[in-house]
Amino acid sequence: MSLTGSKQIVIDGKNHIYGRLAAIVAKKALEGNNVVVVRAEEIIISRSQFRNRLKFMEFLRKHSNSNPTKHSHIHYREPSKMFKRAIRGMLPHKTRRGADALNRISVFEGIPGKFDMKKRVCAPDALKHLVLKNVTPTTRLGDLSSSVGWKGDAVVKKLETKRKEKSFARFEKRKNQLAEFKAKRQNAIASAAKEVLETLAMVQ
C-alpha cells in the first residue's frame, strides 16, 4: 500500500526490520505526515539476541564524565522509546523542521484503543519476510527490552490477547449480520420474481 500524502498513517510494526522501518517513518514524517507505529514490541532486529544484547550493554556504558547522574545519556528500555530514539537519529532533530517531524511521530507498545478500529498498513521495504533470508537469526525487540530491564512485556501480551478476542467477536457479529442481510435480500428477490411471473401468467 502506498504511504504517500499528508495524512495520519498507522503502521503495524510487527515483523518489520528495526532500522529500515525507522528510516521509512522518518521520511514520511519529514514529508508532513503524522505517523503512528503500533506493536513496537514486535519489531525485528537482525542477528541473534545474544549479539544484540551485548551491543546494548556496551551502549549502557556510555555516559558523561561531568555529571553522569544529571547530564548524561538516557538509556531507554521500553521498545517504543528505543525505536523512537532510532528514528530521532535519522532526523535533523536539532533544527525546527526535524523537531516538528519528530513531534509528528508516535510509537506504542500494543495497539491502543483509539487506533484499534483504524486501518493499519505495512511498509513492504521493511518487512522481514521480504528483506532477510530465512537462515538469518533475528531478535524480537520486546525480548531484547525484557532482557535489559523492561517489565511490561507480559502486560502488553495480556492486553493484546483481550484486544484480539474483542476484535474476533466484532468480526463474527459483522459476518452474521451480513449473512442475515444476504438471506433477506435473496428472499426479497425471490418474492419479487414470483410476483412478476404470476402477473405475466395472468396477462397471457
Pick out its properties.
single chain, 204 residues, Ribosomal Protein L13p, Chain: A, 2 domains, 3-stranded parallel beta sheet, two-stranded antiparallel sheet
Can you describe this structure?
The protein folds into two domains: 8-151, Ribosomal Protein L13p, Chain: A; 153-204. Strands 1-2-4 form a three-stranded parallel beta sheet. A two-stranded antiparallel sheet has the order 3-5. The radius of gyration is 25 Å and the shape is elongated. Helix 1 (18-30) crosses helix 3 (79-88). Helices cover 53% and strands 9% of the residues. The model has no long low-confidence stretch (mean pLDDT 93). It is mainly alpha-helical and 204 residues long. Helix 1 links the parallel strand 1 (8-12) and strand 2 (34-38). The protein has helices at residues 18-30, 49-60, 79-88, 96-103, 113-116, 128-131, 141-147, 153-203, and strands spanning 8-12, 34-38, 44-46, 105-107, 138-140.
Secondary-structure topology with pairs:
Elements: E1 8-12, H1 18-30, E2 34-38, E3 44-46, H2 49-60, H3 79-88, H4 96-103, E4 105-107, H5 113-116, H6 128-131, E5 138-140, H7 141-147, H8 153-203
Parallel strand pairs: 1-2, 2-4
Antiparallel strand pairs: 3-5
Helix pairs in contact: 1-3
Task: Fill in the CATH topology of the largest domain.
Answer: Ribosomal Protein L13p, Chain: A
**CATH superfamily heading of the largest domain:** Ribosomal protein L13
Beta-strand fraction estimate: 5-15%
What is the helix fraction of residues, given as a range?
Answer: 40-55%
Oligomerization status of the protein chains:
single chain
First-residue to last-residue Cα separation: 57 Å
Largest sheet, described in full?
A: 3 strands, parallel
Identify the CATH architecture of the largest domain. Alpha-Beta Complex
Structural class: mainly alpha
Rg from alpha-carbon coordinates = 25 Å
In total, the number of domains comes to 2
